[in-house]
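Inverse folding, one chain.
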C-alpha cells in the first residue's frame, strides 16, 4: 500500500473514533433552541394613576352647622322640661266643702255657680240628688241647690183654680245659664276629679255594689226623656202645696214636674248641656271597660 492510502485510512479512522466518542458522551436532554431576533422588548407601561379619594373627586355637600363656642361646648345648657303641676290631693269627705268651692271658683265659668249652691255637705247632697233623680224623684230637703229667692208667682182663676205665671220661669234662668256656660270638657274634668268623693258618699247610702257613674247616666236619661205638657197648666191647692189640676200631669214623676216649673226654654237649655255630658260619660265608661 502506498503512503497516500495509508494516511487516508488513518484520517478516516480518527474521524470515526471521534464520532463514536461524542455519541457515547451526549446527554439524553434535548437542547433548548434559542431564538435570537432583532425585535426590542416593549418598554413597560406606566402604572395608571391611583384614583383620588372620594372627598377630592366629589364636591363636598355644604351643611350649615351652628357655630358653637368653646364655652358652650364645655358648659352645655341643660334640657329644661315643662314643669308638671301636681293636682292637690283630695280631702276627706267630711272636710271637702271648702275644697269643692275652691275648685269650682278656679275653673272656667265656675264661680257664678257657687251662688246657687249650699255651703255644707255639698258632695253628699249632690249624690243624694243624683240618686233620687235616677229613680225619677227629687229630694224635698238636703239638696245641694238653694231654693229660688223669689216665690212662684200665681194668678188666681177662681176659688179653686190657679195658674202659674210664666214669669216664674225666670227664677231658674240664671242657674241654668250658669250651668250652660260651663263647657262639657270642664264639667267632665271636675266630675272625674270629684268621682272618688262621689263614690264614697254613694257607698254611705248602702249601695256599695253600684257604680255612681251608672246612676248619674240614669238620672240624665230621666231628664232627657221627660214627658212634656202644654204650659201653663192649671193648679189646685188642697193643702199648703200647689198640685196640678190635671190628674195625669200630677202623676208625672218629680223630675218631669220640676222641668215643667223650669219652663220650656230653661228645660231645653238644660237638656242640651246634659246630652253632651252623657256622651262623654258613656265614652269614658266604654274606654274603661
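Residues assigned per position:
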Amino acid at each position: 500500500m502506498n503512503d497516500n492510502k495509508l494516511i487516508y485510512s488513518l484520517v478516516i479512522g480518527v474521524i470515526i473514533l471521534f464520532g463514536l466518542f461524542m455519541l457515547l458522551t451526549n446527554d439524553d436532554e434535548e437542547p433548548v433552541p434559542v431564538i435570537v431576533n432583532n425585535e426590542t422588548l416593549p418598554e413597560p407601561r406606566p402604572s395608571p394613576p391611583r384614583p383620588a379619594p372620594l372627598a377630592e373627586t366629589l364636591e363636598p355637600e355644604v351643611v350649615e352647622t351652628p357655630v358653637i363656642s368653646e364655652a358652650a361646648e364645655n358648659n352645655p345648657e341643660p334640657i329644661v322640661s315643662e314643669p308638671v303641676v301636681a293636682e292637690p290631693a283630695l280631702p276627706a269627705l267630711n272636710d271637702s266643702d271648702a275644697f269643692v268651692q275652691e275648685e269650682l271658683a278656679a275653673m272656667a265659668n265656675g264661680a257664678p255657680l257657687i251662688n246657687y249652691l249650699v255651703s255644707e255637705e255639698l258632695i253628699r247632697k249632690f249624690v243624694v240628688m243624683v240618686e233620687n233623680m235616677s229613680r225619677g224623684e227629687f229630694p224635698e230637703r238636703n239638696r245641694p241647690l238653694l231654693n229660688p229667692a223669689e216665690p212662684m208667682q200665681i194668678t188666681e182663676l177662681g176659688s179653686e183654680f190657679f195658674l202659674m205665671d210664666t214669669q216664674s220661669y225666670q227664677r231658674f234662668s240664671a242657674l241654668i245659664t250658669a250651668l250652660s256656660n260651663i263647657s262639657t270638657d270642664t264639667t267632665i274634668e271636675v266630675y272625674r276629679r270629684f268621682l272618688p268623693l262621689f263614690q264614697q258618699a254613694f257607698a254611705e247610702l248602702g249601695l256599695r255594689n253600684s257604680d255612681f257613674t251608672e246612676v248619674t247616666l240614669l238620672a240624665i236619661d230621666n231628664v232627657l226623656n221627660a214627658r212634656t205638657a202644654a204650659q201653663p197648666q192649671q193648679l189646685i191647692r188642697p193643702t199648703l202645696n200647689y198640685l196640678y189640676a190635671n190628674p195625669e200631669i200630677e202623676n208625672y214623676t218629680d223630675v218631669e214636674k220640676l222641668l215643667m216649673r223650669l219652663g220650656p226654654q230653661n228645660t231645653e237649655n238644660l237638656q242640651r248641656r246634659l246630652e253632651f255630658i252623657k256622651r262623654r260619660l258613656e265614652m269614658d265608661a266604654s274606654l274603661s271597660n
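Strands lie at 154-156, 161-164, 234-236, 243-244. Residues 264-288 form the longest helix (25 residues).
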